[in-house]
Amino acid sequence: MKKLKRSARLVEMTQFLLARPHTLVPLTYFADRYGAAKSSISEDLSIIKEVFEEDGTGELQTLAGAAGGVKLIPRLSKEHALAFAQSLCKQLEQPDRILPGGYLYMSDLLGQPATMNEAGKIFATVFADRAIDVVMTVETKGIPLAYATGAQLNLPVVLVRRDHQVTEGSAVSINYVSGSQKSLHTMSLSRRALPEKSRVLIVDDFMKAGGTIQGMVDLLIEFNATVAGVGVLVESGEIDTNERLLHDYVSLANLTAVDSKSKQIKVKLGNYFG
Amino acid sequence: MKKLKRSARLVEMTQFLLARPHTLVPLTYFADRYGAAKSSISEDLSIIKEVFEEDGTGELQTLAGAAGGVKLIPRLSKEHALAFAQSLCKQLEQPDRILPGGYLYMSDLLGQPATMNEAGKIFATVFADRAIDVVMTVETKGIPLAYATGAQLNLPVVLVRRDHQVTEGSAVSINYVSGSQKSLHTMSLSRRALPEKSRVLIVDDFMKAGGTIQGMVDLLIEFNATVAGVGVLVESGEIDTNERLLHDYVSLANLTAVDSKSKQIKVKLGNYFG
């Protein structure tokens, strides 16, 4: 037990809660830790709650009763999410991103942990109220996004591999067609990585026709698992919607045109913003 | 400007600082934000500083003068780090991790964002005072660890790929010998991913003879870059130290024996713990 002044207690409780999103913390935990009355702890929590809501950090849910306690649900305000997405769009429009073949270089943006964490908070906000057991992505570039989302939702992350690896044990492999290139690929998931009947949130950095994500959806069938949601950082709007394999997803940015000749890239907000 | 009571201000400042490790925040930023005197802000910061140091979160450095301000340097206490590593060792010793060929299944542990973040905090503590420009890893399983470390050090992450990808632009590829299997592999890094003369912290989930990490070291030479440090989550002590290609690294756990027949795994603390 540590006796702390209210001011120090507030700092410590704030830190404690931020490190444990989507985790129920009993009031008695704090009361015992600080040797304080539950009423004092409740007052502390209402101060923290007000600041978190005011700042667009999240909602501090209070559950009453014997099994009660407090739980931080990260909910990034739409205003914060919009500012983030606008900045992302602007960065994506930088002309020197165009690579041969009309591909876009995004690794510098995906390489910023703070950017990934912010995007993860948005996905955690979007899917906060769905029943989800695990976040899934396929290697490689969606991985930081999946972990950032998993951290905010307090969920494990499962990685689908392009090849079967010796360090994964027995695995289920499927073939899938990459929609935009019409080429055949393989993806594989370790048997023990995903319990049967899991509800899965799929996250990826980029989606064109959606073949890769559709591959993951098909893979889930092999595990009797279901899709609880799909979130992509950037979708490519360059594709005919009839050609799109997947229709139910949330995107933060939409790449509408890449013109290699005139070096012009056009990006608009993703479907999360309406 | 928001007028807040000290209690609310403490919650907000705590949150603000935790989200920005290794970032200098001028006192005037807080003073302007809250319309408070610098002396009040200094008092707030000394409360936060005391709690962070007491809790083993980190050091709140105060830099005096016109360009002064406050900077959070995450420093996880050795006590916390030890508790984390002991729990990691214990989990690694679970007999059902043994895969055919004596490999160890670790994906469930690597799939826990909170575990990765904790390990990242330890690496950020170990390398806090070195001059580093970027954190590097090779796909796939070291990626969450590299991002967790990068987030705590406020540094970007650079990913070395196994194959050359169209979305990476022009790249430098090298061949390297995986020390334990004596087999030849390729790794590749995008030209624009790493500026010349960068000082690089290499992070990976597992090291046996060190061939993969030595490959990254060799790749850095092509970029006139230098190694600022090497951190691995688990090293395999099953190898003769004469066969080890790399000697200067920090590990958190050391896998000393995997016996497939008797289903026994032995893990001890890594070299970080002396």
TrEMBL record, chains A, B:
Domain Phosphoribosyltransferase: 110-237
Domain Bacterial purine repressor N-terminal: 5-74
CDD domains xrefs: PRTases_typeI
Lineage: superkingdom: Bacteria
Pfam family, one: Pribosyltran
PANTHER family: HYPOXANTHINE/GUANINE PHOSPHORIBOSYLTRANSFERASE, PUR OPERON REPRESSOR
Subunit-structure text: Homodimer.
Protein name as it appears in the record: Pur operon repressor
Species classification: Bacteria, Bacillati, Bacillota, Bacilli, Bacillales
This protein's encoding gene: purR
